[in-house]
Structure formats: structure tokens, C-alpha cells
Write a structure and sequence with these properties.
The complex is a heterodimer of chains A (321) and B (309). Chain A is an alpha/beta fold. Chain A is globular. Chain A has helices spanning 43-50, 76-82, 94-97, 104-116, 120-133, 139-142, 152-164, 182-199, 210-216, 234-239, 244-251, 312-318, and strands at 5-14, 17-27, 32-36, 59-66, 69-70, 87-90, 170-174, 202-207, 219-224, 227-233, 301-304, 307-309. Chain A has an eight-stranded mixed beta sheet with strand order 6-7-8-3-9-10-12-11, sandwiched between helices. Chain A has a four-stranded antiparallel beta sheet with strand order 2-1-4-5, with helices on one face. The longest helix of chain A is centred in the middle third of the chain and has 18 residues, at 182-199. Chain B has 309 residues and is an all-alpha fold. Chain B has two domains: 2-72, no CATH class; 87-308, Orthogonal Bundle (MetI-like fold). Chain B contains 14 helices and no strands. Chain B has helices at 2-29, 33-38, 44-54, 60-72, 86-121, 126-140, 143-157, 169-199, 202-209, 214-239, 246-251, 257-267, 270-298, 300-308. The longest helix of chain B has 36 residues, at 86-121. The chains are: A alpha/beta (321), B mainly alpha (309). Chain A binds chain B through residues 48, 51, 53, 76-77, 80-85, 88-89, 91, 93, 96-102, 110-111, 114-115, 146, 148-149, 159, 162-163, 165-166, and chain B through 201-203, 205-214, 220-221, 224-225, 228, 298-301, 304. Chain A: GO terms for molecular function: ATP binding. Chain A: Belongs to the ABC transporter superfamily. Chain A: It is a peripheral membrane protein.
Chain lengths: 321, 309
């Protein structure tokens, strides 16, 4: 068992509808995985569910193993050690993700106290080092600042420093740059990539933007309507997308060079969780739909090393009739 | 900071002047104190002499200026009933009122805040529903109805407690409970909604995500934020320590400031009514000022605004 995190059959239901419909996903130690899909497809829910951070009304089932040990439904004391200590998470809106009434030094020191047993001056010294590491200038004085006194980009750096405080094996970055200016986005992505290389930490980068994950991640998983529809090494996914949804996403990216062309939007919209079509959720919008697509959920099929897609046509093309 | 304080003090002073002026005008336009105090059958000469003695025959603006001049010298006037200084009459009553309102405030805080927090933490549970039903009942029932109900049950039916008067601590129990229940209900609802609002914030999820145990998330991260809106309503309760007992003091015939006010209004005892209203305005305004300063202490985002203002 070499995987760091191994998710099997993870489903999440809210009320009568399913937000996640069976997620299978592996992350190796030190690996950088991009998790891509539209808003509401379940990217964030996957990780909130894995760490037990969803509200109590969410019904979660399946399996999430961390280093071989099941953590789904684990005791609160176990989860508190995992969260921040082995798997850290940072969020979309850094300004509201930090507690407005506590100084940032205190918020970082809290994580250091929980996971490294550091208190007082030792915690402060380490917090200062972490702020330095994430590139916050004048770290010593910034420790006493409140979140509202920092910019969005700096707050996200503070979030990253706080996440690093527990020396996690995996950092889940949930749309870490969506709320930031474009230039700051690039800096934060660069920082995440550098930290991963320096610290040997695995990274899951959740984004609705294929471009964001392209440079940072080795492997990409594409989600649609609560399922992973395709997963492949980044280069392979961009070169030979197998699922029509992935093809559609790539077709909707503006080309960097060459003549201008109208962007190809995918017609239709994502089905609502309470009105999922039978069969493949993408079938109603799919230009390559087969009659069988509306009959049953397509299973993920291996199309090559590290490449799989949950698509009947992709599977059919694999085996010449 | 000093500029902020100066600005707030100025605003407080303006508020007090407006309240006092309003009271002055309404009292003088709503009935002739001379006629009321001397009685309907009093000879016209006696009424005229009374007016003369109290300066009531002068034009309104002269009375008004004279009144403010006196206030600035610290003279709040004398009762038209017995000629004693209004401030003395009122001051005598304050301990009796505080004997009701301070324990009632403690009840409000000690029941309302924990009930609100518990309800929020167990949202939609049986506890939450029970707290909310009691809270709605608690503040929709007017205090005079609740007071009479309590008298009916505990004084008339069970005979455990006296129905009115001020002879022993047992007399204070029913009025204190009457006042405490309504306030606790308001505070419970307020605390619950403040807490729910905070618990839904992303920084609460962040705290959980970094491994903070839930109890510490609630105490260390949620409560300090939920305290900010709750302080407003507590400030209002502290501000009404003096005047908040008018109805309850009347129901339980408790000789406090509230009952003095009711009697003084009925008698058109101008100086006494004005003195009480001035006191009420001053406590309310002071409580507000303290709340504003507390905001700065609780919320660093406002601290800068306070410093900059």
C-alpha cells in the first residue's frame, strides 16, 4: 500500500440528493494532483467529507484511508490529529477564512501548539519562520497584525503558513487563488509548487480552471456532477482527452497563439443533484452520446498507464469491435 | 482615540439635551400642573398664586432657559408636592429599583446567554426547539401579564410568596423573576442568532480544519465573535437598570424610581419627572458609550476606525 490517501466509493448526500456519487481517488506521497470541474461538481465536498468537516446533516459513506488507516467516521480525537497535522486544507477566500478577532501570530501558534507542542516564545519564533517561508515581508511585526490589516494575497500566505505549521503530508488547496488578483494568483501557485518540492508534501489543487492546475500538477482528475469522469497525467490529459466533457473543457480554453476563434462553450447546463439523469450525467449535453449512455452509469476504464475515463465511447474505442 | 471619545461625548450630550427638552415641552403642553396639584375646586386666586410661586405664568421660552440654567448649576428643581429637592426624592428610590434590576440583569445574563449558545450548538434539536418556544413565550407575554400570573400562582394559590410591598427579600423574588424572564428570552434569541451566524463563517471551518477540537473552536473562535453583536443588547439592558422597572414596580407596588415616575406624571410634578428622565437618558447614553468602547476592545476591525476617527 504505497498510496498516501486512498478514497473509495465516497458518496455524500444532502437531504434527498447526492452531492458525491462514488469517488475513487488515490494520491501518492509527494504527488501533486489537480482536481478540476465546475462549481458544485463536488471537488471541495470530496475533501471536506474526507476530513469530516461537513455539517452533521450530510450523509457520508465510503472509505477514506490515510496511510492505510480508515479516517472516515473516525473519532473526533483521531480526526483532530489528522486535520492540520497530516492533511491540511486552505480555502478560497483567505480574508474570511482567518478569524477576524485574533492576531495572525496567535492563529499560527495555535496550530503549532496542537501539532508540534510548541508554546510561547518557541511557537512565536516558529510562526515567524513560517511567515518568512511563505514570503511575508517583515514577518516579525506581521505576527501582531490582524487579518483585516493584510491584503488578500498576504492572508492566503498566512493560511498557507498556518497549514504548514503541522508539517502535513498532504495540503489540500481549495480554489486558493480564485479570490485573488491575477498577478497574485501566479505568486501563490508558484509558492505552493515550491513548498511542495522543498517539503516533499503532496498537494491537491482544487480549481475550476484547467490553466491553474496545468503548471502546478503532475496529474489531473476531472469531476462532473459528483463523479470523477477522467483522470490522467497532466500532459496526457491536455494532449489526448478521452472524455467528451474534458474535451469540451479544453475546447473552451482560449488558445494562446494562432488565429482568434470563438470559444466553444458546452451547450446545456449541469443537471441539478435532485434531477440526475439515469446513466451518464453528461449524456444530455454530450455530442458523442450513444444510446447505451442513458442506461447505466459508465464505470471508469483504464485507457493507459495512469489514464482512466468513465465513458462508454472511450471504452468502446479502446477495444476495436 | 481622544477625538473619538470627544465626538461620542458631544453626541451623548446632544442626546440628553434633546430628551430633556422634549420632556419639558410635553409636560408643559399636556396639562396645567397648578390646576392638578391644587385640585379642581381650588379658588382661582390660590391657583394663580401657585403659578406665580413656581414661575409658571412666564412665557415658555423663559421657563425653558431658566430650567436649563438651573441644570447647568446642578439644580434640578424641587417637587411641587412637598417642596423637597427632586434629586433627593429620586436618589432615595434608586437603591430599591437597583435591588430589583441588578438581580434581574444577572438572571437575564446567566440564563439567556447559555440558553442561546446551547440552542445554536444543537440547532434544530429538541433543546433548540424548546429554548426557542420558551423564548418566544418569554418575550411575547407582556411583563404586567406575567407579573399578575406569577402573583396568581405563587402568592394567591400557593401562598409561598408575598404579592407586593418591600418588607423582606422574599418580596423581591416575584418582581425580579418577572423582569428576568423577558430579558433572558430576548437575550437567548439574540445570542442564538449571533452564534449561528458566526458558526457558519469560513474561519470556523478553518479552525476545525487545522485540528482545533470542537470545544476550543466554540470557546476560542466562535464566542469572541458572537459576543460583538450580543454586547449591544446587553448594553441596552444595563442602560435600562434605572428605568426598566416602571411596569413591574407598579404591578408589585415596589417603591422604586419607576413608581415614583408614574406618580409624578399623574401629579404633573414637573421637576421630579424631568429629573427622572434626565437620569434615564444619562444612564442610557452612558451605557451606549461603554458599548461603543467595548466594540473596539472586542473587534480589532473597529479599533482602527476608533483610532482614526
Amino acid at each position: 500500500m504505497s498510496e498516501l490517501v486512498s478514497i473509495r466509493g465516497l458518496t455524500v448526500g444532502f437531504g434527498g440528493s447526492l452531492a458525491l456519487r462514488g469517488i475513487d481517488l488515490d494520491i501518492g506521497p509527494g504527488e501533486a494532483l489537480g482536481l478540476v470541474g465546475e462549481s458544485g461538481c463536488g471537488k471541495s465536498v470530496t475533501w471536506l467529507a474526507a476530513l469530516g468537516l461537513l455539517p452533521a446533516r450530510a450523509r457520508v459513506s465510503g472509505s477514506v484511508r490515510l496511510g492505510g488507516a480508515e479516517i472516515l467516521g473516525a473519532a473526533p480525537a483521531v480526526l483532530d490529529r489528522v486535520r492540520g497535522g497530516r492533511v491540511a486544507m486552505i480555502f478560497q477566500d483567505p480574508a474570511s477564512s482567518l478569524n477576524p478577532v485574533h492576531r495572525i501570530g496567535r492563529q499560527i501558534a495555535e496550530a503549532l501548539g496542537l501539532h508540534q507542542g510548541l508554546r510561547g516564545a518557541a511557537a512565536r519564533k516558529e510562526a515567524r519562520r513560517l511567515l518568512d517561508q511563505v514570503g511575508i515581508p517583515d514577518a516579525g511585526r506581521r505576527l501582531d497584525a490582524y487579518p483585516h490589516e493584510l491584503s488578500g494575497g498576504q492572508n492566503q500566505r498566512v493560511m498557507i503558513a498556518m497549514a504548514l505549521a503541522g508539517r502535513p503530508e498532504l495540503l489540500v488547496a481549495d480554489e486558493p487563488t480564485t479570490a485573488l488578483d491575477v498577478t497574485i494568483q501566479a505568486q501563490i501557485l508558484e509558492l505552493l509548487g515550491a513548498l511542495r518540492r522543498d517539503l516533499g508534501m503532496a498537494l491537491v489543487l482544487i480549481s475550476h480552471d484547467l490553466g491553474v492546475v496545468a503548471d502546478t500538477c503532475e496529474r489531473v482528475a476531472v469531476m462532473y456532477a459528483g463523479r470523477i469522469v477522467e483522470a490522467a497525467a497532466t500532459a496526457r490529459l491536455f494532449a489526448a482527452p478521452a472524455h467528451p466533457y474534458t474535451q469540451g473543457l479544453l475546447g473552451a480554453l482560449p488558445p494562446v497563439d494562432g488565429p482568434r476563434r470563438p470559444l466553444a462553450a458546452i451547450p446545456g447546463g449541469v443537471p441539478e443533484p435532485w434531477a440526475m439523469p439515469p446513466g451518464c450525467a453528461f449524456a444530455p449535453r454530450c455530442p458523442q452520446r450513444l444510446p447505451a449512455c442513458t442506461e447505466g452509469l459508465p464505470a471508469a476504464v483504464a485507457l493507459g498507464p495512469q489514464h482512466s475515463a468513465a465513458c462508454l465511447r472511450a471504452a468502446r474505442e479502446l477495444v476495436p469491435a | 482615540m481622544l477625538r473619538f471619545l470627544g465626538f461620542r461625548l458631544l453626541r451623548a450630550a446632544v442626546t440628553i439635551v434633546l430628551v430633556v427638552s422634549f420632556a419639558f415641552l410635553v409636560l408643559r403642553l399636556s396639562g396645567d400642573p397648578a390646576q392638578i396639584i391644587m385640585g379642581a375646586d381650588a379658588p382661582p386666586e390660590a391657583v394663580a398664586a401657585f403659578r406665580q410661586a413656581w414661575g409658571l405664568e412666564e412665557p415658555l421660552y423663559v421657563q425653558y432657559l431658566r430650567y436649563f440654567g438651573a441644570i447647568l448649576r446642578g439644580d434640578l428643581g424641587r417637587s411641587m408636592r412637598d417642596g423637597r429637592e427632586a434629586i433627593t426624592l429620586v436618589a432615595e428610590r434608586i437603591p430599591a429599583t437597583l435591588a430589583l434590576t441588578v438581580p434581574a440583569l444577572l438572571i437575564k445574563l446567566c440564563i439567556g446567554i447559555p440558553a442561546g449558545i446551547t440552542a445554536a450548538l444543537h440547532r434544530n434539536s429538541l433543546i433548540d426547539r424548546a429554548v426557542m418556544v420558551l423564548a418566544v413565550a418569554g418575550f411575547t407575554v407582556p411583563s404586567f401579564v406575567l407579573g399578575l400570573l406569577l402573583v396568581l400562582v405563587f402568592a394567591v394559590q400557593l401562598g409561598w410568596l408575598p404579592s407586593g410591598g418591600q418588607d423582606s427579600w422574599r418580596h423581591a423574588i416575584l418582581p425580579i423573576v418577572t423582569m428576568g424572564v423577558g430579558g433572558a428570552a430576548v437575550l437567548a434569541r439574540f445570542t442564538r442568532s449571533a452564534m449561528l451566524e458566526v458558526l457558519g463563517q469560513p474561519y470556523i471551518r478553518t479552525a476545525s480544519a487545522k485540528g482545533v477540537p470542537w470545544r476550543a473552536v466554540v470557546w476560542g473562535h466562535a464566542l469572541p465573535n458572537a459576543a460583538i453583536p450580543t454586547v449591544t443588547i446587553i448594553g441596552f439592558m444595563v442602560g435600562s437598570l434605572i428605568a426598566g422597572a416602571v411596569v413591574v414596580e407598579s404591578v408589585f407596588s415596589w417603591p422604586g424610581v419607576g413608581r415614583l415616575l408614574v406618580v409624578a406624571v399623574a401629579n404633573r410634578d414637573l421637576a421630579v419627572v424631568q429629573c427622572i428622565l434626565l437620569l434615564v437618558a444619562a444612564t442610557m447614553v452612558t451605557a451606549n458609550l461603554v458599548v461603543d468602547l467595548l466594540y473596539g476592545a472586542l473587534d480589532p476591525r473597529l479599533r482602527n476606525a476608533v483610532r482614526g476617527a
